[in-house]
Model the fold of this input.
Amino acid sequence: MATGDKKTCVLHSGKTPAQKAKEAAADRLARALRDNLHRRKAQARARKSTDTAAEEAGRMKKGGS
Done:
């Protein structure tokens, strides 16, 4: 690649290919972390609702006996 080509690339996009790759990797990481957080929150909500349901069933069983 000629030096002129690199300058043209930087002028058109404002970033070098290495900068674009680094930014893309950071974006992928951020997306993966966000998805992981959403998944963990959903799991915690599901766990809480099953714990609450089990607790309610335990109370009903104690109250009915």
Q: What stands out?
A: The chain has two helices and no strands. The chain has a mean pLDDT of 83. Residues 17-64 form the longest helix (48 residues).
